[in-house]
Amino acid sequence: MPATSAPSSGRRTRVRAVATPWLFATPAIVLFTLFLIIPIGYAIYLSFRGFRIEGGGAFGRRVQTFVGLDNYLSALTDPGYVAGLGRVLLYGVIAIPSVLGLALLFALLLDTPRVRARGFARTAIFLPYAVPGVIASLLWGFLYLPSTSPITYLAERLGAGPLDFFGFPALYFSLANIALWSGVGFNMIIIFTSLRAIPASIYEAARIDGASELQIAWRIKIPLVAPALVLTGLFSVIGTLQLYSEPATLRPMSNTISATWVPLMKIYQEAFMNDNLGGAAAASVVLALGILVISLLLLRFFQRRTFGDNA
After folding, report:
1. Could you tell me if residue 83 is inside a domain?
2. What per-residue string of b and e applies to 210-225 under the rule 16 or more CB within 10 Å gives b?
């Protein structure tokens, strides 16, 4: 009897070992399926659907039917959608280098030896990230609005005239400033954490060889935190292509921001104002695929530059 029970006990142990990880992962899998996989699948389904009029004359009925790739062709040839992509790219050229450059600078400054109030400075730089994007946009919007802006008030008193923060090209810098204010702290924390993981013995050896702190930062710290820079850069690119809350919040304060100023605003307009769910779904799929392709290309490019051809 003991010899018979030993194999069954071993089988139960193996089954338990295999089932236990899946048991713990089940809630995450269920949530991932309900709130990501199913919505994506439904959006793809809607992107191939559209409304058509069946029956002639005054008695025609508006019915939803399969339209093939018509919604995708409409999205790709829509001047408003294409113009929105161009505005996002121009905004990204200004915002991404500024955010990453300042985040790297602050992280390097906080990592220097004998720096004072490191914890307070780190918290103060990170704190704006905790402010929701809509609230941050409202705060800066009132600072940009001529009737409420203390910056414009001081400029007029100094004889510089009123400042138009919503004109072209100042609008792009105004939006980039909001991203700068809220995004630097998050990226700085990632880079600073990566810097703290570098062994201090490397810095000591460099100082013994006569390297200055600037040389250590340029020749040792920045190359060693390259993976963190790649990660933050990828996050910044994805966030830029998903730009929505800042221009949508500032739109009532400005005449230069249209209802379709960026792709996500165009998608919102099609879905909830024009009742064109199929077109909005197709535009969303196009944007998501574009983000995925750009992210993969950038990740592959920086992996090769950072880790060599073996990446």
Report:
1. yes
2. ebeeeebbeebbeeeb
How many whole angstroms separate alpha carbon 187 and alpha carbon 206? 27
Does residue 136 lie within any of the structural domains? Answer: yes
> 114-123, 194-203, 280-289: which range is least confident on average?
114-123
- The pair phi, psi for residue 77, each rounded to 5°, is -105, 5
Q: What is the arithmetic mean of pLDDT over 230-252?
A: 91
Burial 247-283 (b: 16+ CB within 10 A, else e): bbbbbebbeebbebbbbbbbbbbbbeeeebbbbbbbb
Residue 176 has pLDDT above 90, yes or no: yes
Region label for 117, one of left (φ > 0), alpha (ψ between -120 and 50) or beta (otherwise): left
Cα atoms in the Cβ-side hemisphere of radius 13 Å centred on 5? 2
Does pLDDT of 63 surpass 80?
no
Model pTM above 0.90: no
| Class of residue 204 by CB neighbours under 10 A (exposed 0-12, middle 13-18, buried 19+) | exposed
d(CA 305, CA 300): 9
Count of domains in the chain? 1
Please determine, for residue 133, whether its predicted confidence score (pLDDT) is greater than 90. Answer: no
Give strand pairing partners of 64: 51
∠ CA 195-198-200, nearest 5°, is: 115
- DSSP-assigned beta bridge partners for residue 66: 49
* Sign (positive or negative) of CA dihedral 150, 153, 159, 162: positive
At residue 3, does pLDDT exceed 80?
no
- Hey, CA dihedral for 98, 101, 104, 105, is it positive or negative? negative
**Nearby residues of 66 by Cβ (< 8 Å), 6 or more positions away:** 48, 49
Residue 274: domain span: 70-307
- Both tokens of residue 191? 């880079």
CATH number at residue 208: 1.10.3720.10
Tell me whether residue 22 is in a domain: no
Residue 57 counted as domain residue: no
